[in-house]
């Protein structure tokens, strides 16, 4: 009889960036283990985006992946409910897939994204080790462990109305309005789901987080102190995408355009895989860039009043038609606008890129850190406002613009923050601090660096060493 392969099953939550992160983690895990195989079961909303299909096509043979049967929604179903319902409806398929795998594999563990952690029930049924994978910060992990306590302590008001910044272990204090979206509406159904998930974290065999001590020393220490009583923490980051094998014509044009620019002169602007701005905000941003006179490379997406509207659903509108009249012509010597998608890792690694106006998704932050690029923090949804607080108030590697009384960042403010980052002494100092983080990131990934050692320990635990 053929020997069974030792296998870990990974389950991302729906959405490109969560899939990307857990797959990159798996690639690194394989490098650190001798003979481990991975199966990735992918819960899917509607049909998977091209970007997700492209990354699974380039996986090594040791990582198998399957898009689970997709779940369909009405346009007005809130994103959080779509994710929750997709997980619930995917559980029978996950059970089925595990059953099939047991005939050929020794299933040692499952690692599921926080938002896919319902799947860990299936792992427990088969006596597999269960891990929660956080494709976000250690600060988010700390917040999730702390939430049940916060829920008890602040029982009468919404967190956004809390008069004082909220302290959770090892983290920079955060205003209630900057806490992650799922907890903003305490009367909403999703709040209860999220709280339950946080309460269940303690029963996992460990928590894996895409961060590192050289970046988030205090939250990592708080989470690993013996007295914390939390499951083992594995800070294995920074893990970022290795780069695009298949650069599109648009992507190629971006890189050639950058080749012609002076070193560190260009502000790269992107709101992640699905962030969108309102039409009014898009306008203000455009005029602000124009007024600043600074070079920019902007990935433009069609506007929407809902900031995450393109995260799970992709429109066909030409985004460039929403820019102010004559903007492209007037700024043709100053900037380049690209519709919807650009090769971000290559852009951040290009010597002409000197700043990043980012929605503060965690992958984008790590990609910026690994390339030493200072940030203008423009958070939109999920835990991005918390990430922005950490970058600005804690690490001081980002500038955050101020909105007016309606939350709109006006063109004058855009111009001001662009200049502060790209030409003022403040920007130079932020750049210096980013370079220190860049070195720490490179160090931790070396063979004897702390993230590599932690990954070795994790792999050893799976392989029974
Ligand atoms: N990304 C990219 N090109 C784009 C927009 C995004 O390659 O035009 C990649 C980016 O490099 C990152 C991921 O998509 O790896 C976005 O993840 P992040 O966590 O920053 O944000 P999210 O998409 O979850 O909001």
Automatic annotation (TrEMBL):
This is Glycosyltransferase. GO terms for molecular function: UDP-glycosyltransferase activity. The keyword Cell membrane does not apply. Belongs to the UDP-glycosyltransferase family. SUPFAM superfamilies: UDP-Glycosyltransferase/glycogen phosphorylase. Coiled coil: none annotated. It comes from Clitoria ternatea. Keywords: Glycosyltransferase, Transferase. It is an enzyme of class 2 (transferase). InterPro entries: UDP_glucos_trans, UDP_glycos_trans_CS. Its EC number is 2.4.1.-. Pfam families: UDPGT.
């Amino acid at each position: 009889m053929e020997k069974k392969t030792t296998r870990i099953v990974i389950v991302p939550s729906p959405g490109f960036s969560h899939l990307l992160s857990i797959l990159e983690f798996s690639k690194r895990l394989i490098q650190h283990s001798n003979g481990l195989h991975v199966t990735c079961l992918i819960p899917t909303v509607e049909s998977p985006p091209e970007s997700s299909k492209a990354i699974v096509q380039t996986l090594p043979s040791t990582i198998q992946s399957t898009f689970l049967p997709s779940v369909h929604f009405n346009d007005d179903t809130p994103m959080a409910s779509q994710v929750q319902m997709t997980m619930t409806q995917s559980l029978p398929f996950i059970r089925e897939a595990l059953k099939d795998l047991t005939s050929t594999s020794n299933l040692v563990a499952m690692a599921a994204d926080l938002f896919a952690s319902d799947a860990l029930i299936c792992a427990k049924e088969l006596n597999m080790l269960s891990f929660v994978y956080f494709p976000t910060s250690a600060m988010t992990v700390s917040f999730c462990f702390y939430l049940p306590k916060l829920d008890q302590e602040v029982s009468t008001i919404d967190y956004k109305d809390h008069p004082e910044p909220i302290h959770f272990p090892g983290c920079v204090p955060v205003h209630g309005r900057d806490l992650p979206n799922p907890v903003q509406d305490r009367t909403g159904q999703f709040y209860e789901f999220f709280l339950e998930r946080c309460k269940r974290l303690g029963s996992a065999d460990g928590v894996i987080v895409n961060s590192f001590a050289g970046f988030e020393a205090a939250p990592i220490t708080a989470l690993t102190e013996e007295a914390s009583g939390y499951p083992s923490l594995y800070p294995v980051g920074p893990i970022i995408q290795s780069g695009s094998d298949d650069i599109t014509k648009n992507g190629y044009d971006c890189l050639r355009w950058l080749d012609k620019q002076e070193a560190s002169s260009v502000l790269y602007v992107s709101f992640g895989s699905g962030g969108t701005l309102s039409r009014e905000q898009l306008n203000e941003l455009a005029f602000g860039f124009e007024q600043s006179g600074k070079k920019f490379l902007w990935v433009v997406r069609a506007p929407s009043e809902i900031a995450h509207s393109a995260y799970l659903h992709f429109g066909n509108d030409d985004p460039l038609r929403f820019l102010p009249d004559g903007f492209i012509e007037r700024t043709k010597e100053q900037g380049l606008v690209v519709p919807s998608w650009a090769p971000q890792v290559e852009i951040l690694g290009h010597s002409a890129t000197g700043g990043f106006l980012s929605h503060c998704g965690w992958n984008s932050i790590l990609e910026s850190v690994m390339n030493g690029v200072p940030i203008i923090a423009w958070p939109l949804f999920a835990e991005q406002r918390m990430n922005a607080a950490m970058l600005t108030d804690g690490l001081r590697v980002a500038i955050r613009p101020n909105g007016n009384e309606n939350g709109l960042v006006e063109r004058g403010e855009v111009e001001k923050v662009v200049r502060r980052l790209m030409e003022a002494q403040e920007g130079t100092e932020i750049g210096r601090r980013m370079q220190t983080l860049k070195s720490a990131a490179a160090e931790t990934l070396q063979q004897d660096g702390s993230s590599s050692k932690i990954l070795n320990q994790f792999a050893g635990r799976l392989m029974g060493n």
